[in-house]
Amino acid sequence: MHIRGVTAHPDRAWTAQQAPSLVKGLAGRIGSFRFLIQDRDAKFTGAFDDVLAGEGMRAVQSPPRANYAGRWIRTVRAECTGRMLIDGGSHLRLVLRAYARHCNGHWPHAGRYPAA
Question: What are the residue boundaries of the structural domains of the chain, listed by start?
Answer without folding.
Answer: 8-65, 67-107
